[in-house]
Amino acid sequence: MVCDCCATTPGSGWPSCAASTCGPSTAAGAWARALLLCAEEIARVWGVAVMRLDTRLDLTEARALYLRHGWVEVPAFSDAFYAEVWYAKQLE
Question: What pLDDT digit, counting tens, does each position of 4-37 carry?
Fold first, then answer.
């Protein structure tokens, strides 16, 4: 079983990006990658220069995905309940 979710939200000055994958599947990584790249492209179309996201430290696969795709760890920018590490990506 695989479940994926991705959202980008314009309007607040910073779009939010959320992607999650659950369940045992080798396809899960491919879905997560596709969703992340799609969210980045949508943000580019909207004219967003920088995307930001936060996640939990124990989500090592997600964190590795972000780093592989050019996201960098940045200082905290939110106080969300599960936010333990923060990332940003400069869009071109």
Answer: 455 555 555 555 555 555 555 555 678 788 888 8
User: 37-59 burial, b if ≥16 CB within 10 A, otherwise e?
Assistant: eebbebbeeeebeebbbbbeeeb
Q: How many Cβ atoms from other residues are within 10 Å of residue 87's Cβ? A: 21
Q: What is the CATH number of domain 3-90?
A: 3.40.630.30
Q: Which residues contact 66 (CB under 8 A, 6 or more apart)?
A: 36, 53, 55, 87, 89
DSSP tally for the chain: helices H, then strands E: 2, 5
Q: Where are the domains of the chain?
A: 3-90
